Amino acid sequence: MSNTPIINLPNFLRTPAVGLIGEKCYTELIENLNFTNVPCLKYAISKGLGLGIVVGGSIVKIPQILKIVNSGSVEGISLFSYSLETLSYLVSISYNLRNNNPFSTWGETLLITFQNFIILSLIQVFNNNLLGTIWVVLGGSGIHYLLNGSGLVSLDLLTILQGATIPVTLFSRVPQILTNYRNGHTGQLSAFTVFNYFFGTLARVFTTLQEVDDKVILISFLLALTMNSILAAQMIYYWNVKPAKAQASPKASSEKKDKKSKKLQ
Fold first, then answer.
1. Where is this region: Disordered (predicted)?
2. Structure confidence at residue 258 (pLDDT)
């Protein structure tokens, strides 16, 4: 049987592909087109999903940020929910960094955290609390230094903290879910962000099972998937429901027109 590859990619394509899925799986899947190698196929799918999630993570909250800026409102956005989520992400970033986990299995967490800081700052700005914006930046920087550069947090302690992010992940979504339920609408919450989160965590469960033998991280993603499923369901349920202010404005404007017309008469 000939060992000549069926497909021979140029080096500028081969090098990153080998870097992503390894020499063995590259030979099996790309050169020999052997898709019956299930372990390599699963690994390649996992790597592809992971890379896609990281890329998606770089823009996942941009629509949310733009929606807040364009509307000039943070109505329906839970400060407590975003604060808990960001704290949880800071711990997860440190845990993955110090355990040398592949960037493709957690990279979006870093990118989403940067976007969370922007949203937290916008919440403070639109609530006329400029001092709060400064505390957001200083607090985040301080926590990151404490977990990574201070030498005060051992890897064992960080593992415990990562485990503690499981209930934090749970409760970080609960305030937003309750806010939506009490308001009877999703306010300025971005549908793109919510659904991106849902599909992203669904894919993360798969990539974690394939690449990271860590039950703590797996449970964390499973819980996040549960909460994101509820948020996605709320987004669908309240799809055509607008905030009370938005609904009242056409009515108010029509009443003003009626008053003006009566005066003219």
1. 246-265
2. 55
